[in-house]
Amino acid sequence: MGFWMNDMGRRCVVVAIAVAIGCSRAPRAPIGVSDDRLIAMVQADDVEAVRAAAGEAFTTRIVSGEERADLLTIAALVDAPHVVSALLADGADVDGRPDPFHRLESAWGRTPLYTASRTGHAAIVKTLLDAGADATRPDAAGFGPLHVAAAFGQTPVVALLVDEGGVAIDSPSARGDTALMLAVMRRKPGTVSYLLSHHADPRIADRRGDTPLHEAVRNGDEAVVVQLLAAGARVDARDRNGRTPLDDAPLRAPGLASVLGHGSGASIRK
Asked: What is the extent of the structural domain holding 192?
């Protein structure tokens, strides 16, 4: 009898918590439709199959795949434009449905737009922007869609976010990284070229005092060093340890010190 009462007490607590976070009110998918099957249907971009499988939970279902996320975020991840459009037409939250267990759009706070930006699905990025997605909303680590697009070299997405999403090209992440810094750091020369041609500032330092030129020198990337110098990067910028790109050059690649020296006339402030 005591065990039965304790078990019932635990059940009551679980139900009370579920009600408090809204789980009891969320529509459920038909019994027997696993998350894996539903994700496979989304990946096939089969709107009718997904709609039938999810039932009333079409716009609200949270699934566990690569990460816990709503169907709109999953569709953005796997490049399912028809499912994205159908979900938005049916009223899905363009910035993702909060996961009641994490209080975020996904376990890492990644919105559908962030996810599509990371994976380079430009058509979905445009659809989400046209639907009013927040183009600056960061993930749990403080990186926004522009930062992740630049870091992964998704230049067409970077262009969409800047030109149509209105994202400031030099907007920093939580740790002070600009899109240009991330593109240089991750060795994405096409994205670097786009950002510089659209007047990204190569002199902005992150919280460590590093500039894109510091990173290009550490990478031994002479072509990017030349681009940054032409755009006004400073060879005398000091990081938090007091080191300049000129200090690091001899340790990284032959010839970089000479390149930096030739560019120093226009890049050192007296």
From this structure: 135-201
Q: What confidence tier does 48 reach under pLDDT thresholds 50, 70, 90?
A: very high
pLDDT score for 19: 31
53 shares its domain with 103: yes
> Would residue 107 count as lying in a domain?
yes
Last residue of a domain, one of 201, 216, 251: 201
- Contact predicate 164/132, CB 8 Å: no
* pTM of structure: 0.81
Domain count, the chain: 3
pLDDT tens profile 88-98 = 999 999 998 75
